[in-house]
Each structure stands twice: as structure tokens, then as C-alpha cells.
Amino acid sequence: MKLVPLSDLAIGEEAAVVSVGGSHAMRTRLNDLGLVEGSRIRCMYPSAFGDPRAYLVRGATLGIRNSDAERILCRKGQENGRTHSSSMR
Fold first, then answer.
1. Smallest Cα–Cα separation from 39: which of 59, 13, 65?
2. What is the C-alpha separation between 27 and 48, in angstroms, rounded?
3. CA–CA separation, 84 vs 48, rounded Å?
4. Under a CB-based contact definition with an 8 Å cutoff, are residues 15 and 89 in contact?
5. For residue range 60-78, what is the model confidence (pLDDT) as tens digits?
6. 43: closest CA among 35, 51, 52, 53?
7. Does residue 52 have a cis bond before it (omega within 30 degrees)?
8. Under a CB-based contact definition with an 8 Å cutoff, are residues 15 and 85 in contact?
9. pTM of the complete model
10. Angle at 75 between CA 71 and CA 78, to 5 degrees
């Protein structure tokens, strides 16, 4: 499976977080909010001007700027042999 930045997810698309880049403070903040390796994330919708976009992670909606989302690598597609297109819990 190909790694893509979080910013490349289309609205409604899901992926698994592989790594969180950026400054130490940003990584810590995102980790504290539940954005850790292996977490499933779904792009929900953009703001009025397209930046930031809303993402669903572990039942919480996070607003992440596109510049920060570019530093978060994700794996789209299947995980453990099944597709995660059903609703996230």
C-alpha cells in the first residue's frame, strides 16, 4: 500500500495513520488528541475557505491545517485484510 499525506485524502475517505511529522510541539499535541500510529482517520469536510479541514479520529472531530496535514503520513486502503469503508467507532 502506498503512503500518502493526510492532506491528500478526499472528503469521506479513510486511512490509517503511519507517522506524524512536524515540530515536536505539534506531534505531541496531535498525539494527545488521539492521532497516533495505527489510528483510523476520516476526512469529514473542509472549512468555508478549504483550510483547515475536519477529520474524524477516535470519535472526535479535529480541525487540522493543510500545512500540518501534509506532514502526517497515512496508508489508504485495506488493513488486516478488510476495507474500512464502514462507519468509524
1. 59
2. 26
3. 28
4. no
5. 999 999 999 999 999 997 5
6. 53
7. yes
8. no
9. 0.80
10. 165
